[in-house]
Amino acid sequence: MVECGHKYLVFTILQRSEKKLLRILREVDINLKSPINGLTALHFAIEWPWALQHLLNENADINATDDFGRRLIHLAVATGHFESAIALLQADCAIMTSKTTPSLLQLALQFTNAEQRSVIIPAIVDALADRHNRLLKLGRAALPEDQLSALEILESKLERKAPDIMIALFGSGFSVPQALALDDRSVYDTGDMHGSIRLSPQYAEMLWSAGFHDIDSPNHTGLTPMMQSWYAANFEMVNWFMQKGVSGRSRHQDAPLYGLHLLAVRIAYPGAYFRHDSDLIDTDLALILNLQHDQTINHDGCVCICAPQGCTPASFLVKRVLRIYDKKLYALFPKWCEKTNPSAELLEHSAREYTRAWICRKMLLPHTCCVIGQKCEIMVQPQQPENSYEVLFIEKLFVEDYMRLYDRRRPEYGGPLENFPRLFIGEVESTSNGGFMTFPFISSMARL
Ligand SMILES: [Zn+2]
Ligand SMILES: [Zn+2]
After folding, report:
1. Rounded to 5 degrees, what are φ and ψ at 372?
2. CA dihedral 293, 294, 296, 302 (to 10 degrees)
3. Within the chain, how many helices (H) and strands (E) appear?
4. Beta bridge partners of 33
5. Looking at the CA of 313, which ligand is closest?
6. Is residue 34 pLDDT above 90, yes or no?
7. How far is the CA of 361 from the centre of ligand 1 (A)?
């Protein structure tokens, strides 16, 4: 019977029958959840703002979550029902998200249509500013002086302090309204493997004016907002962060990787925003040139046969491509050169590094260099146990042999250098002795 009430209410909302809805609103429990997915009637009403408002007036639970933990506000924003989203924000809904799901602002920043963005993003920025300021006010009024100074509450980086204020309030026995529970991440966080969270200077300036000044803290994968912008090939934001005083030499928190390394990862895997097509990736040669000039930041500290002086952006081009897309490597280096326009000297160096990493890949060699994850987190792959000193020695001999052949062939080749790696690999593969020696073979040889 209870379930019938829920079904009937949902059915009435889907039918959009105003008369029927007004009649049954007081007859059924409007906060009942579906036994299948935990959705309440209010979840269905995001498509019909009139009903949503009436349900809210009857004290429907504005913060109800479904069985996947999704709140109404997140569904309303993600599905583009902005009239309902704004009504929910004005009714002071909770906006907190778990660490593993996109924040409310990140959901809004995934819309590409300028008109849609102009409706929802300012509404969310206003809501974020309002809630942060109310939380700070509550903290200042409720917490003793010594606790406030221990929290080092600086208004300039309020967004990083919000979770601490909340914990301190809870610890002191105060209850905090759900609407003031806030995410523990910078509002400038756009780290996303698909590059789909697009902040722009217009909205960044809006956040800045609202009092959010935490522009240089790394997120949980170790990327600062500036590094996230390099990874998203969002150069107008790289420029914006630099205008706000962030260094152009910003690096990954967990490894000496700079903008060019992350751009290489993006070009190797363009992601959904660039429709998986590296041709569509933007470029900014002035910014790129600025980093290319600094030779010291080209190599990270890794030691691996694939990159004896440390990984370079060219190593990341090779490492980021999945084995099933191996063929991509033939076109990737020319694409990288087209996007980054290296000097003759840098081109010579990168072509060699690229070829070396590709040879190691062809040989199925295990790496002892860094591995980067889907959100550019550093995952160091442990050395294979069978990778003994003898095996390493023989592997190195083979790789150096191929590289000596590369160095012999290189001066004979007069065409565009960006094409040389693929021609060289093609030549070795087509040799009569079967192309590249592979790691399992080398390994068994070393055991003899
Ligand atoms: Zn390696
Ligand atoms: Zn590395």
Report:
1. -110, 135
2. -80
3. 21, 2
4. 40
5. 2
6. no
7. 9
Task: Report strand pairing: 370-372 vs 378-380.
Answer: antiparallel
* Token pair 């962030």: residue: 246
Q: For 378, phi and psi rounded to 5 degrees?
A: -85, 125
Going from the Cα of 142 to the center of ligand 1, the distance in angstroms, rounded, reads: 54
Kindly give the distance from the C-alpha atom of residue 358 to the centroid of ligand 2, in angstroms, as a whole number: 15
Q: What is the pTM for the complete model shown?
A: 0.90
Q: How many whole angstroms from 276 Cα to the centroid of ligand 1?
A: 25
Check: CB of residue 372 under 8 Å from CB of residue 320: yes
**Domains of the chain (ranges, CATH numbers):** 2-93 (1.25.40.20), 104-250 (no CATH), 296-448 (no CATH)
> How many C-beta neighbours within 10 Å does residue 397 have?
11
Q: Are the C-beta atoms of residues 304 and 254 closer than 8 Å to each other? A: no
Are 263 and 272 within 8 A, CB to CB? no
- What is the model's pLDDT at position 70? 79
**Looking at per-residue confidence, does 211 or 381 come out higher?**
211
Q: How many CA atoms lie within 13 A of 43 on its CB side?
A: 22
224 Cα: distance to centroid of ligand 2 (angstroms): 18
Q: What is the pLDDT of residues 351-404, one digit of tens each?
A: 999 999 999 999 888 888 888 888 889 887 555 545 667 777 888 888 999 999
Contact 366, 392 (CB under 8 A): no
Mean pLDDT of 265-292: 94
Q: How far is the CA of 240 from the centre of ligand 2 (A)?
A: 28
Alpha carbon of 18 to ligand 2 centroid (Å): 62
Separation of CA 99 and ligand 1 centre (Å): 31
The identity of residue 100, as a single letter, is: T
SS3 content of the chain, % helix, strand, coil (to 5): 55, 5, 40
In terms of Cα–Cα distance, which of 263, 260, 318, 255 is closest to 289?
260
Token digits of residue 275: 């429709």
Ligand nearest to the CA of 319: 1
Kindly report, residue by residue over 128-185, the tens digit of the pLDDT. 999 999 998 888 888 888 887 777 665 556 677 788 888 889 888 888 899 998 988 8
Q: For 416-446, b where at least 16 C-beta lie within 10 A, e where not — what string?
A: ebbebbbebbeebeeeeeeebbebeebbeeb
